[in-house]
Specification:
mainly alpha; 18 helices; 405 residues; Growth Hormone, Chain: A; 2 domains
């Protein structure tokens, strides 16, 4: 493609997704209390319901949207998802009941599959040697969006509790128009496949993609790694307060530093490092770093050391786009959407499992009466999960010879 505008559009799409998600975080407690008339503790329960409903819809609809993009092409699916997302933010902006807000989150979970379609577009336009770099851009944009979203949302919330939603609607709608103008269709008509409803549910899609040569163990690694890495949004604020008595602005700043280090690394390091050492070596090295970092955070007593480890784990996030590129090589052109949809569903499932696992572990070991007082215990769980990823990857390499390198 001679123009770089499509690549700009895809990167903007993922960036706006990340910003849109983070944008509404600061205002959700106040908005839920406004709609329900409940106190903060009861509002938190509704917050959990909204978050879980979003992830559940993303889990079930990821393969559906991915398969639709394999049938009708990337452009119509992506533009439609962005338009629906803009409408969804308007619904949430004007919601005057908690049930309407819940409807908005359900719609948002469905349209969250924009990332899987954008990743399929990247796979379509990438040469084999450029996939790690382009997938790195996708992950970097999401990481930077997550970092910027809460900061922007906090500022807009000072104007009005509905302002972040209107801003997110404008961003999504404006990007849909931009994509309509500049985005070409990347999936040729002769490479499309028929849409099969029985293959569009996450369980059937998982089996179908897992049957591709050498991919199933990598799907397991992807899932375990997602559960482990979600320890940050699931528990970081509680851990930082319990272990180091950090205040809310400082906690927000640590997450911002984490997001920025993750975004910069995925944007600028993935391509050169995988070109030099290979995707498999990069994934394996990053996982080793994560195991060591998670163990150190779990037992850390120095807040300065934890700041350093936050940057280190942000850098090691380059494992995700490298792993995604390895799996992408196993899927034919007309199944890239299905593959990315499955990965989106696995990521959504991780956002359901990880908070339950990590918060329960934290509650047990951070309780004043706990036999072993260890607020960092969730990070040790994350270390065990990433260690399991290491073992599975090494066994996969020995069995397959790394033919998807």
């Amino acid at each position: 493609m001679t123009s770089r505008l499509p690549l700009v559009f895809i990167t903007l799409t993922i960036l706006i997704d990340g910003i849109g998600i983070g944008l509404i975080f600061p205002v959700m407690p106040d908005l839920i209390r406004e709609l329900t008339g409940r106190d903060l503790s009861e509002a938190a329960i509704w917050g959990g319901v909204l978050a879980t409903s979003y992830a559940v819809m993303q889990f079930f609809f990821g393969p559906v949207v991915g398969s639709l993009s394999d049938r009708f092409g990337r452009k119509p699916v992506l533009i439609s998802a962005l338009a629906i997302l803009a409408l969804d933010y308007l619904i949430m902006a004007m919601a005057h009941t908690i049930w309407l807000l819940l409807l908005g989150r359900l719609l948002a979970g469905i349209t969250a599959a924009t990332q899987s379609t954008a990743s399929a577009f990247m796979a379509d336009i990438s040469s084999p040697g450029a996939r790690e770099k382009n997938f790195g851009l996708v992950h970097a944009a999401m990481g930077i969006g997550f970092a910027l979203g809460p900061l922007i949302g906090g500022l807009l919330a000072g104007i009005d509790t509905r302002a972040p939603f209107y801003a997110a609607a404008i961003l999504a709608g404006g990007n849909a128009v931009f994509g309509l103008i500049v985005m070409p269709e990347s999936l040729a008509a002769d490479k499309r496949r028929a849409f099969a409803l029985e293959r569009a549910n996450p369980f059937a899609a998982f089996r179908a993609i897992g049957a591709l040569g050498g991919v199933f163990p990598l799907l397991v690694v992807f899932g375990l790694y997602q559960v482990a890495y979600f320890v940050y949004p699931a528990i970081w604020a509680f851990f930082a307060q319990a272990q180091f008595s950090l205040d809310t602005p400082t906690i927000g700043l640590t997450l911002f530093v984490f997001g920025v280090s993750m975004g910069i690394s995925q944007a600028f390091l993935v391509g050169p490092l995988t070109k030099r050492f290979g995707a498999y070596a990069i994934v394996l090295a990053a996982i080793v770093i994560d195991v060591a970092a998670f163990v150190c955070i779990g037992f850390a007593t120095s807040v300065a050391f934890v700041w350093l480890l936050t940057v280190v784990t942000g850098v090691s996030s380059i494992a995700m786009p490298a792993l995604q590129a390895i799996m992408s090589r196993a899927a034919p052109d007309n199944r890239q959407g299905e593959l990315q949809g499955v990965l989106g569903s696995i990521a959504a499932l991780a956002t359901i499992i990880s908070p339950l696992l990590m918060t329960e572990t934290f509650a047990i070991f951070a309780h004043p009466d706990a036999r072993i007082h260890l607020p960092g215990a969730p990070f040790l769980i994350a270390a065990l999960l990433t260690a399991a990823c290491f073992v599975i990857l090494v066994r996969w390499r020995r069995r397959t010879g790394g033919n998807l390198r």
